[in-house]
């Protein structure tokens, strides 16, 4: 690769770069490391502080297996309870609804006397005490709504006694306070305490080893507590939809309390189910006994009627005769129906054949004659074969003619067989009807008392079966009374999962760490989003396709021009690199006049013009810099030269013969090859003057006398002046200043490129901070 190709690849590399620059993004974050550090400390501190005041909760769970109710059988193998009319999934869902009922939870809380909340006085944050953390237990009998506004202090006085201090809201003392106290009253453990707000007992807790002697007690609404537990803390669900295992999950701050609640929930659930079954069984026994007594009387009466009827009419074998007749009558009726159906089918076949429809097949269903079935099957087979051949061969085909002949022959045979079969069927129907009439006559001779006896016997049989059925169910129901047989098994009793602690310290710290990173990132990107200035090279590359030929670092020296002896400075190196880039970017025979401009004032075009002139002149090239910014002529001051008597404006106003170009040239001290021409003392109409013949002659002579011409023009906001000079230039350099040039200003540069308003446009990125 040649040196020119190398610089070309660097200049045009922005066309191939990806939009996302990870290195630049990380660099932006590293510059704001202090911001990240501050927010990390803040959020981690807040997380640590929150963990001190937030009460943790744990998951307490238990598993139960619902039994199949039809599996309960007695010693004889009979079911003790009736089959469940619902499917397994429906039954499981019903039991889940029972377990999550507010009424069941209320019974649990009432059984554990959880209307009372115990707190250690002065503890912060406030933590509820329970079970082994207390030296006593409170057994609540009755609580009234006034208790919810009452707080009591219990003080342990010894092994056998305690004292109570009562405080309640809503009353006013002489001092005007919002609470009042009755004072300490001493009681023995087990004494039934009756107060206006409720009745309760306090008993000693033998398992407690706590040393505190004073506790604060608050009363709570048990109905509200039950509702909150069911809606917010309790979760009951099926582990596997194909199984009957139910998982009971409870979120509770105190693990011991949570385990007691779940175990008591399962226990009371079983007790209530037992009580329900026992009540149903007792009701069934009572109902069956009443029905058995009534049936016993009815059955005795029916048996007497049967015995008396048979004795009077001597009907010992009538039942057998009646049954035989009924069977024969049904059999002949079935045969008659079948024969009539077959006769209709044969008549239909005969009609179809005589209609002359040679393309249809015949239905042999309900035909009993094997010979006729055989002929019809052959006929149908030939019809199907004929239809198949009609798609491929003509009617005069030998095979088609043969099939037609066979069909005609079969048709005659079928008609003959049909005639014979129909005559035979008519004879059979007549015979069946004759035998049926014989049984009808025989039926008329059966005594009417036969029907009476059947009715009496039928009633007797029904009552006997019902009596035996009720007697069996009465014994089954009696066996169920008083026998507790739960419809579930406890797989796992309540177990606390200490790993499920909420909030998790690790998770809390991780979230605070992520917030400590995310907030600064958001601030940085919000600042970038609100920024309207060019902050990096990427901003230029995104908004314009004009090539960037170089970057100029921030000038911290305060000097406007590079002095001799500073060639090794970073600023001098930047201009030396741009001098090389200019040479490689444009052919030397074309790049002689360089027009320097910007979008707005203050972007450093004069600073660039001065120093690029110094850089070009240091390569033994003869360079002249023209001061053509009539709005802000600062070039000569930046070069450190005195303002001459004549300038370009004087030259253009007086004409080419009045003032020589040598009169305009001002040498720049420190560099023998660098000259400057000032704007002059006359007013200049840029559009008219820069398009004049004198200006064209001036530029032509300067081209002949100098190697490079640098024009310090006005910002392209005054477009007429700068455009008038563009025709004399070989290239136009736009100066973009970091954190100064507006992002919308880049659209002006891109518009100049797209509409080709300037020759060979290029961009120089000026005043770059932290340029390496």
TrEMBL record:
Domain Tyrosine-protein kinase G-rich residue range list: 449-527
EC numbers: 2.7.10.2
Limits of the AAA domain: 596-746
GO cellular component: plasma membrane
Localisation: Cell inner membrane
CDD domains with a match to the protein in the record: BY-kinase (cd05387)
Catalytic activity: L-tyrosyl-[protein] + ATP = O-phospho-L-tyrosyl-[protein] + ADP + H(+)
Coiled-coil residue spans: 285-319
Family membership: Belongs to the etk/wzc family. Belongs to the CpsD/CapB family.
Name of the featured protein: non-specific protein-tyrosine kinase
Species assigned in the record: Maribacter litoralis
């Amino acid at each position: 690769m040649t040196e020119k190709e190398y610089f070309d690849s660097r200049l045009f590399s922005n066309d191939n770069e990806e939009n996302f620059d990870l290195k630049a993004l990380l660099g932006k974050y590293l510059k704001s490391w202090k911001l990240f550090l501050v927010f990390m400390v803040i959020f981690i501190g807040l997380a640590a502080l929150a963990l001190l005041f937030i009460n943790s909760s744990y998951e307490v769970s238990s598993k139960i297996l619902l039994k199949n109710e039809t599996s309960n059988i007695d010693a004889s193998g009979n079911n003790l309870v009736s089959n469940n009319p619902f499917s397994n999934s429906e039954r499981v869902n019903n039991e889940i609804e029972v377990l999550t009922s507010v009424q069941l939870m209320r019974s649990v809380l009432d059984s554990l006397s959880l209307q009372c909340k115990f707190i250690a006085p002065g503890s912060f944050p406030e933590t509820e005490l329970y079970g082994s953390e207390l030296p006593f237990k409170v057994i609540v009998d009755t609580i009234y709504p006034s208790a919810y506004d009452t707080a009591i202090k219990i003080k342990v006085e010894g092994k056998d006694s305690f004292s109570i201090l009562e405080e309640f809201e809503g009353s006013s003392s002489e001092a005007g306070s919002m609470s009042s106290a009755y004072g300490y009253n001493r009681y023995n453990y087990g004494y039934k305490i009756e107060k206006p707000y409720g009745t309760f007992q306090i008993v000693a807790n033998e398992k407690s080893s706590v040393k505190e002697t004073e506790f604060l007690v608050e009363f709570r609404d048990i109905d509200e507590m039950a509702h909150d537990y069911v809606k917010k803390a309790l979760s009951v669900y099926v582990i596997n939809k194909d199984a009957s295992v139910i998982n009971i999950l409870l979120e509770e701050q105190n693990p011991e309390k949570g385990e007691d609640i779940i175990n008591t929930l399962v226990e009371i659930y079983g007790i209530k189910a037992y009580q329900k079954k026992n009540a149903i069984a007792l009701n069934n026994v009572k109902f069956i006994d009443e029905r058995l007594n009534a049936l016993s009387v009815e059955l005795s009466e029916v048996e007497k009627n049967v015995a008396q009827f048979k004795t009077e009419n001597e009907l010992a074998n009538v039942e057998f005769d009646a049954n035989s007749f009924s069977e024969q009558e049904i059999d002949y009726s079935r045969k008659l129906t079948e024969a009539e159906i077959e006769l209709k089918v044969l008549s239909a076949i005969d009609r179809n054949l005589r209609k002359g429809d040679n393309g249809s097949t015949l239905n042999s269903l309900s035909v009993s004659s094997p010979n006729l079935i055989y002929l019809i099957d052959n006929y149908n087979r030939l019809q199907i074969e004929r239809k198949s051949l009609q798609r491929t061969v003509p009617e005069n085909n030998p095979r088609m003619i043969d099939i037609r002949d066979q069909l005609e022959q079969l048709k005659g045979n079928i008609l003959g067989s049909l005639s014979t079969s129909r005559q035979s069927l008519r004879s059979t129907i007549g015979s069946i009807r004759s035998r049926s009439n014989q049984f009808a006559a025989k039926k008329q001779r059966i005594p009417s008392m036969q029907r009476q006896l059947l009715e009496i016997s039928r009633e007797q049989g029904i009552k006997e079966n019902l009596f035996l059925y009720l007697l069996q169910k009465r014994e089954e129901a009696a066996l169920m009374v008083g026998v507790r047989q739960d419809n579930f098994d406890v797989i796992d009793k309540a177990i606390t999962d200490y790993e499920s602690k909420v909030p998790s310290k690790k998770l809390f710290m991780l979230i605070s760490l992520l917030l400590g990173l995310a907030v600064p990132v958001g601030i940085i990107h919000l600042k970038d989003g609100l920024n309207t200035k060019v902050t990096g090279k990427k901003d230029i590359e995104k908004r314009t396709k004009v090539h960037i030929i170089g970057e100029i670092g921030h000038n911290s020296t305060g000097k406007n021009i590079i002095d001799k002896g500073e060639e090794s400075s970073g600023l001098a190196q930047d201009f030396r690199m741009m001098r090389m880039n200019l040479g490689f970017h444009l052919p030397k025979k074309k790049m002689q006049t360089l027009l320097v401009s910007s979008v707005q004032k203050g972007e450093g075009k004069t600073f660039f013009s001065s120093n690029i002139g110094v850089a070009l002149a240091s390569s033994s090239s003869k360079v002249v810099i023209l001061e053509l910014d009539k709005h802000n002529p600062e070039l000569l001051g930046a070069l450190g030269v005195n303002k001459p008597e004549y300038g370009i404006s004087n030259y253009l106003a007086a004409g080419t013969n009045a003032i020589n170009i040598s009169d305009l040239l001002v040498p720049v001290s420190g560099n023998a090859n660098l000259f400057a021409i000032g704007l002059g003392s006359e007013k200049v109409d840029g559009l008219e003057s820069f398009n004049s013949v004198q200006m064209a002659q001036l530029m032509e002579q300067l081209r002949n006398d100098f190697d490079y011409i640098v024009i310090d023009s006005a910002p392209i906001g005054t477009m007429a002046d700068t455009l008038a000079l563009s025709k004399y230039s070989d290239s136009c350099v736009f100066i973009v200043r970091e954190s100064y040039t507006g992002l919308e200003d880049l659209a002006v540069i891109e518009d100049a490129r797209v509409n080709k308003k300037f020759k060979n446009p290029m961009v120089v990125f000026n005043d770059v901070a932290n340029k390496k």
